[in-house]
Write a structure and sequence with these properties.
Number of helices: 4
Structural class: alpha+beta
Strand order of the largest sheet: 1-7-3-4
Radius of gyration: 19 Å
Number of strands: 7
Largest sheet: 4 strands, antiparallel
Distance between the termini: 19 Å
Strand content: 15-25%
Number of domains: 2
Length: 174
């Protein structure tokens, strides 16, 4: 589960696009909120349970790493767009920033650096992950899942058909 520091995100499927996909001709405003909840649910399911192992909507995150973690390459949420800051608390209780580090943006989403000798506790990495441009297969998968939930045709909207659609985006290992 991806825990973001952002409060709101703009979903990859908008209300008009979903209504068109579902062939909803009437403008029942009372359903609009429900339909957008379906989009959020579908996107979250793809991120967390769909086998994508990556963030879809770009947003900010903050992860803490122990000294043992820092002895190897650390993997962040994929696809990594930017590392904003790497900080730690020194022996005097002051926050310090690590400015010398390596990073692999994109699907690998890796960062590496030396653990500071004066660090007390964990290292905090603030970063942004998500797609800059949504792959069409992910948009289609979200819409398919919304249809299944809207029509209540299946218990789990993450059907084999949806898994087939997102297959080009699934990463099995790095």
């Amino acid at each position: 589960m991806f825990i973001s520091t952002d409060e709101q995100v703009e979903e990859p499927v908008n209300l008009e696009g979903l209504k068109a996909y579902l062939s909803l001709r009437d403008n029942r405003l009372d359903e609009d909120s429900y339909l957008m909840q379906l989009v959020t649910t579908a996107r979250t399911m793809l991120e967390n349970e769909g086998g994508l192992e990556r963030v879809i909507v770009p947003r900010s995150f903050e992860l803490e790493f122990t000294e043992d973690d820092c002895r190897r390459v650390m993997h962040l949420y994929r696809p990594l767009l930017e590392v904003e800051a790497i900080t730690y608390t020194d022996a005097e209780g002051e926050e310090q920033e690590i400015t010398e580090y390596g990073v692999e943006l994109g699907i690998r989403a890796e960062v590496w650096f030396e653990y500071p000798e004066d660090a007390v506790g964990d290292i905090t990495v603030r970063f942004t992950s998500g797609y800059e441009h949504y792959p069409p297969c992910i948009i289609l998968a979200i819409k398919m899942m919304c249809r299944a939930m809207y029509e209540r045709t299946v218990d789990n909207p993450l059907t084999p058909e949806v898994r087939d659609v997102i297959q080009p985006e699934v990463i099995y290992d790095l």
